[in-house]
Design brief:
27% helix; flat
């Protein structure tokens, strides 16, 4: 949901993995991340391909891969 200030707000927290598809370390954690995402948890799990979403990765200062960030619920981003 988008707040009045134009920020993304979610009722659930998020773990987001920022990665590059060709990155060796990213490939090492891919199966672990998929397993984590398949769990029945009260949290959202997602990922961002920084080759495809350069602007988003830049906005969050991502310069090391993989990077995993936690976004608390209703914090506004």
């Amino acid at each position: 949901m988008i707040s009045e200030e134009g920020e993304f707000v979610s009722e659930k927290s998020w773990f987001i993995k920022f990665y590059l598809p060709w990155c060796p370390k990213c490939k090492l954690v891919a199966d672990i991340w998929e397993d984590f995402a398949s769990k029945d948890l009260d949290i959202n799990i997602g990922d961002v391909d920084c080759d495809q979403q350069k602007k988003i990765c830049s906005e969050y200062g991502i310069n090391s891969y993989p990077t995993i960030l936690y976004f608390p619920a209703d914090a506004g981003y």
